[in-house]
Amino acid sequence: MTIATILPRDGSSAPGVRPPVASGARPPFAGTAADSVNRDSTGAGVLADLPAPVTFTCPVPPSVNAMFKNTKHGRAKTQAYEDWRLMAAAAIRRQGVPKIKGHVVINMAFEIDLVRADADNRLKAMNDLLVDLGIIQDDSLIPAGLFSKLPPTNRSAHIQIWPVVANSDQTITATFHATHNGAGGAWIIEAPSHTYGDYNEHV
């Protein structure tokens, strides 16, 4: 199952591409004061494409209950947790996952038992590893997130990280699509958009 499909809301163009402007039509803000105000000295501005999401897969993280154990010296990582960190870190490095600065929204889907397993208590292990690897700067910079359960086909975790652009009126819309029995499903995220008054620009 695909955990996310990134498409423009009107379906008229590929991800990351603005809908085409009709021949002879004047693009929004072209040559106006708004255009010059919204652009910085480098030529970039709020009309520039929003960053694309970062996606990767790795082994499913352990639950919080399986992360630590009590020892005579205090709390310590379990062997299962240590092993997962090594395997997941290797998988992330193989996929060349880039580092992201600033705030992010994360969509996580775990291939786990749809009946007995909890998805929400696996978030901490994944977030902590992302910080330790420098993929994100800190888990306090995650203002929102999504998680879901998928059938345990390969025991994989599917991660999608969306950069949050400050001062851009960025909108991220997600729809949950449940499995037939309602025990699992996936969040489908639309391409983010900028909003300027009555005009929405999809990127």
From TrEMBL:
Q: Which GO terms describe its biological process?
A: DNA recombination; DNA repair
Read off the Pfam families from this record: RusA (PF05866)
GO molecular function terms listed in the Swiss-Prot or TrEMBL record: hydrolase activity; magnesium ion binding
Keywords for the protein's UniProt record, in alphabetical order:
Hydrolase
InterPro entries with a match to the protein in the record: Endonuclease_RusA-like, RusA-like_sf
Keyword ATP-binding among record annotations: no
Q: What is its EC number?
A: 3.1.22.4
The enzyme class is: hydrolase
User: What's the protein name?
Assistant: RusA family crossover junction endodeoxyribonuclease
